[in-house]
Amino acid sequence: MKCRQCEAKAVINMRQHKLALCANHYIQWIVTQTQRFIEKYHMFTHQDRILVAVSGGKDSLSLWDILWQLGYLTEGLYIGLGIDGGVNYSSRSHQLCVQFAAQRNLNLISVNVPQTYGMSIPEIAAHTQRGKNKPCSVCGLTKRHIMNQVALEGNFDVLVTGHNLDDEVATLFGNTLNWNVGYLQRQRPLLLDNHPGLVRKAKPLCRFYEREMAAYALVRGIEYIYDECPYAEGSTSIYYKGLLNQLELDRPGAKLSFYLSFLQAKETGFFSKPINLEYGEENVGAGGETLYTCPKCGQPTTAKGLCSFCRMMEKISR
Amino acid sequence: MKCRQCEAKAVINMRQHKLALCANHYIQWIVTQTQRFIEKYHMFTHQDRILVAVSGGKDSLSLWDILWQLGYLTEGLYIGLGIDGGVNYSSRSHQLCVQFAAQRNLNLISVNVPQTYGMSIPEIAAHTQRGKNKPCSVCGLTKRHIMNQVALEGNFDVLVTGHNLDDEVATLFGNTLNWNVGYLQRQRPLLLDNHPGLVRKAKPLCRFYEREMAAYALVRGIEYIYDECPYAEGSTSIYYKGLLNQLELDRPGAKLSFYLSFLQAKETGFFSKPINLEYGEENVGAGGETLYTCPKCGQPTTAKGLCSFCRMMEKISR
C-alpha cells in the first residue's frame, strides 16, 4: 500500500479515516492533527507553561515529543511509584523518561513516592481499605494529588496527560454502562474546574487510537516501556478495551464515532447542567459538584474536611 | 438447586437476582413482577382496553398470557407479513396465535398485509429504496402503521408489545454508541406522544431477560414459533445482542443495570428537555420533535406532508 501524499511505502493504514501514509507524512499528520485538537478544544496556547505527565509509556512520551515539535513550553513530570513487579517496572520507566528528556534538552521533574512518603504505592495500598485488593485506586489518587501539587507549585498553566482514544472510550463505556451521571458530565478533552487549588487538565491525544500512538512512537524511534503496569492485569478498563476492540474489528470507526458523538451530544446541550468555567461559578467542579479546600494541602475536595489523599495518609501515619 | 419459596426443584436460577424458583413460584413471580412494572411506569389500568401486538413468538404470547392471568381487558393483533423463508414463517406464526387465543377464549384481530395492500412485505421492500438490501425497515414501518391504525379504529387505550430486556438493551446500546439524542430521549417503558392520531405504547416485559421469557413460555406450555424471522440474520441488533451476551456472561446483571441506570438517569433529569404528556405540549413527540398530521391516514408524522408509510405506498402505486 502506498502513501496518499507521495509514492513511498505506507507504514500505516487507518481504515476509519480511509488514509494510508508513509513514515514522514504520518508523523506530519499526527503533529498537525494534535495542533488541531489543541485549538478545537481550547486546551492551551504557545504562551502557556505546560506540565506533561510522563509514565515512560508510548502515549505520554509521544505526547511530549509532539508538543516539543510544535514548539510548546513544556516540562515533564515523572512520578516514581516504587513498583517492581519482577520487571523492575518503576526504575526502567524512570530511566526511559530521563533519557528522552536529555535527548531533547528538556526539563524533567521527578517525584519519588517511596522517598517522599516513606512507602511505595503497593505498601501504601497494603495499609488501606481502598487498596486492599488492588493498589490501582490508591495509585490513581496519589498520582492525581502529586500532579496537581507539582503543577500548582511550579505555576504551570495546564497539566496534560497522554490518554488516547482507547483509554477515553473505555472510560466512557464504563460510565455509560452504569449511567454515572457525574462522570459523564465531567469527561471532556479539557477539564475546567473552577477552584484556586486546581490546575486545568487537557488530553491532546484523546482522538488518536492506541495503535496510532504505538505506530507514532515506533516511527519516531521513541524508546518506551512495553510492559503494562504489573497490577493492571484483570482490571475493568482492560476488560472493556477487549470488548471494544472486538466491536472496532467488526465495525471500523466505532470507537471514534462513539466518542465524537458523545462530545457532540454534550455540545448540543443534551446533558443538563453542563457546568464549567464559562458559567463563572466559584468552586464548582466540571461535573457540577461543590468544591471545598482541603485544610492540609489546599487542593480541592468534594468533602468538607481533609481531601481523600490527606485523609488516607493521615490514617496510615496513625 | 431448590426453590427459594418451597422445597421443590428449581426450574430457573436468576444470577442477577440471586433467586432460584420452582415452576409454580416462577410463574407467580413473573406475573407479580409484571403487575409491579405496569404500576411503576403507569402503563395502564384494569379499566383500559389493551391491544396486544402478537407475532407468534415467545415474548408477545407470554405477555398476552400474563395480562390475561392478571385479568386485563385484552385483544390480540396479529399482522401477517407474507414471509415464507422456506419455513412457512408467517402462516405458522398466525396459526399459533389463533390457537393461543382460542384456548383462552380471547379475541384475535388479524391483518393480512398481502391481502390488504396487494403485496407481501418482501415484495413491498423490493419496490422501494428503503427495502433495497433488507426488508426490515419496510417491515417495521408497516407494522407501526398498522398497529397504530388498528388501535385507533378499535378505540383501544393502549398498545402493548413484547419487547424484553435484551431487546431494549440492544436498542439502547445502539443509540448510545452513536449518541442518538432523539432516540435516547424517546426510549421508555411507556411512550407518551401527544398527538390525537397516536395511541400510547407500553412494554410491560422490558425488565425481563430474554431467557426468563423463554423459561416462562416453556413452563406455561405456550406453543410459539422458535424460528427467528428469516430476514433477521446478520442484523445490527443481533450483533449487539451477541456482544452484550458476552458482557452479561462475564458480569452477571450488567444488562439490567445498564437499562435501569439509564431510566434512573432520565428520572433524575440528566437529559435535557424530557418532553412528554406531563408537560402538556400539543403535538410534541416523546423525543421533543414537532408532530404533524398525515393528510392521508391521519397518523402523526414529523414531516409536513404525507407520513413515511403513505409516502412509500404512494410511490409503489405509481
Describe what you observe in this structure.
Two copies of one chain form a homodimer. Chain A is an alpha/beta fold. Chain A is built from twelve helices and ten strands. Chain A has a domain at 44-261: 3-Layer(aba) Sandwich (Rossmann fold), CATH 3.40.50.620. The first copy, chain A, has helices spanning 23-40, 58-69, 89-104, 113-117, 121-126, 136-153, 165-177, 181-186, 210-219, 236-250, 254-267, 308-317; strands spanning 12-14, 19-21, 49-54, 73-80, 108-112, 158-160, 190-191, 200-202, 292-293, 300-301. The longest helix of chain A is centred in the first third of the chain and has 18 residues, at 23-40. Chain A binds chain B through residues 176-181, 184, 239, 243, 246-247, 250, 254, 257-258, 261-262, 264-265, 268-272, and chain B through 176-181, 184, 239, 243, 246-247, 250, 254, 257-258, 261-262, 264-265, 268-272.
**What is the C-level CATH assignment of the domain at 44-261 in chain A?**
Alpha Beta
What oligomeric state do the depicted chains represent? homodimer
Largest sheet of chain A: 6 strands, mixed
Strand-residue proportion of chain A: 5-15%
Strand order of the largest sheet of chain A: 5-4-3-6-8-7
The name of the CATH architecture of the domain at 44-261 in chain A is 3-Layer(aba) Sandwich
- CATH homologous superfamily heading of the domain at 44-261 in chain A: HUPs
Order of helices and strands of chain A: EEHEHEHEHHHEHHEEHHHEEH
Radius of gyration of chain A: 20 Å
Q: Overall mean pLDDT score of chain A?
A: 92
Give start-end ranges of low-pLDDT stretches of chain A.
Answer: 274-280
Q: What form of chain A results from the Cα inertia axes?
A: globular
Supply the helix-strand structural class of chain A.
Answer: alpha/beta
The count of strands of chain A amounts to 10
CATH topology of the domain at 44-261 in chain A: Rossmann fold
SS field, number of helical segments of chain A: 12
